Amino acid sequence: MDLGVDLLTSGPHASPDAIVRMAEEAEDLGYAAVWTHERQLYPVTDRPPLPDYYRTTYEPVDTLAFVAARTTRVKLGTSVLTAPLHDPIQLARRLATLDRFSHGRVIVGLGQGWMREEYAAAGVPYRERGARLEEVVAALRAAWAPDPVSYEGRYHRIPPAHLDPKPDQPGGPRILIGAAPPRPSTGRPGSPTGSTR
Predict the structure, then answer these.
(1) Of the candidates 176, 154, 173, which has an alpha carbon nearest to the alpha carbon of residue 165?
(2) Computed over its alpha carbons, how large is the radius of gyration of the chain?
(3) What are phi and psi of 62, to 5 degrees?
(4) Nearest 5 degrees, angle CA 165-CA 169-CA 173?
(5) From the CB of residue 16, how many other CB atoms can be counted at a distance below 10 Å?
(6) How far apart are the C-alpha atoms of 100 and 189, rounded to whole Å?
(7) Which domains does the chain possess?
(8) Rama region for 104: left / alpha / beta (φ>0; ψ in -120 to 50; rest)
(9) Half-sphere exposure of 86 (CA within 13 A, CB side)
(10) Residue 171: which of 192, 145, 149, 133 has the closest Cα?
């Protein structure tokens, strides 16, 4: 069994020194992977707020690049990036660069997210999150294929182009999906019909 560690990338005790120390110790102890998570903003709303823990959250791919420079064996995972809020060309290049610098240690965790405020800030319709997640995965795979690459989707397009660097791992890093379908309606007035966590 492979065990991983969620790095201390959120909360009042998160700091570059703490993150690197955790990653180095995880590697020394033989853990298989270290993981980061994504929170694009901490909204101020009338509904119950997120825990204060999420007020400070380090950017996950940049954090893993920092960790990659201080480790040699432990896998580097995102758990998870809210895929529909990312441009797939930029994301493909950032993850490929990280995979090259880390000599093939990247695991890509992608999800559809659940925070409406993050979607509003990105100008992405919340109701499209499932379809956009599927399309980002397809676009990443296309971008990591041999050049010239191209992709034509409903939301994203990659014109025929050379898109380098390619990841160190042939075909690109493993992609794990963290998502859920909308909760079914119970038929009662006021029941949730489309919220997803």
Answers:
(1) 173
(2) 18
(3) -65, -40
(4) 95
(5) 11
(6) 52
(7) 4-178 (3.20.20.30)
(8) left
(9) 29
(10) 145
Q: Show pLDDT as tens, one digit a residue, over the chain (197 residues).
A: 899 999 999 999 999 999 999 999 999 999 999 999 999 998 887 667 778 888 899 999 999 999 999 999 999 999 999 999 999 999 999 999 999 999 999 999 999 999 999 999 999 999 999 999 999 999 999 999 999 999 999 999 999 999 999 999 999 999 999 987 766 655 444 333 332 22
Question: DSSP state, 154?
Answer: S
User: Would you say 64 and 76 are in contact if contact means Cβ atoms under 8 Å apart?
Assistant: yes
Q: Token digits for 116?
A: 């409406």
Please tell me the distance from the alpha carbon of residue 92 to that of residue 141, in angstroms, as a whole number: 8
pTM: 0.89
